[in-house]
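Researcher: I'm preparing a figure for a lab meeting and need a structural model of a single chain. I don't have an experimental structure, so a prediction will have to do for now. The sequence is pasted below. Please return the structure as tokens so I can convert it later.
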Amino acid sequence: MTDFALTADERIDQLYANDIKIIQSPSVFSFSLDAVLLAHFAAPPLKSQAKIVDLCAGNGAVGLFLTAKTKAQIIEIELQERLAQMAQRSVYLNQLEDQVAVLNIDLNDTFKYLNKDTYDVVTCNPPYFSDLPKSKKNPNQYLAIARHEITVTLEETLQVTSGLLKTRGKTYFVHRPERLFEITELMKKHRLAPKKIQLVYPKAGREANMVLIEAIKDGRTGGVRFLPPITVYDENDEYLPFIKEVLYGKKD
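Model: Understood. Here is the structure written out token by token.
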């Protein structure tokens, strides 16, 4: 199958920095800057023998963006059928079917399809918000599932992550800063040692609204490095140079 025809409300967006095209739709959850920054933050092995899994893949953005950094095989796991189909068509659109595969499965069923302790890297842009009884959720089910832990919890996601990784394998997460301590405690509970943390600020003088985290399976505790922060916009709401480079590539 090589059909990537668009349906009614779909469009093709592009990450110009690595010439990857992504099928998107306003009706479902689209990738945004967090996915771009996660792919930039991740440091996968270059070799083709390496194996990567991207959890909560959505429309496939993170896994597709990673192809610019590695020849490794990449498996994307996404629960929602329409998003998984969009991801698969984006794989065909970019002619990456020899490198990237999409599994339309529940994350909690991962080990029915993939072997434990065999992957070098796991990336994840998970739902950011706990599924609390009084949580206000988007009426659009695609968006609600993408943003809230309706179908999978943070701990379940980290448990699967740890199960997939080889000893000394690495995971890369993007999340909300207000859950940073919860995330690091759950990582340690599931044999993942946080090693690098980078905060992302929308503008100077504002609170951070994203955090990027690298952890190593069965790594030594301690030695966490806080990388220089990222600021997205200047005072005129224009992208700062680093963000422009991540989105559009270096200018000649």
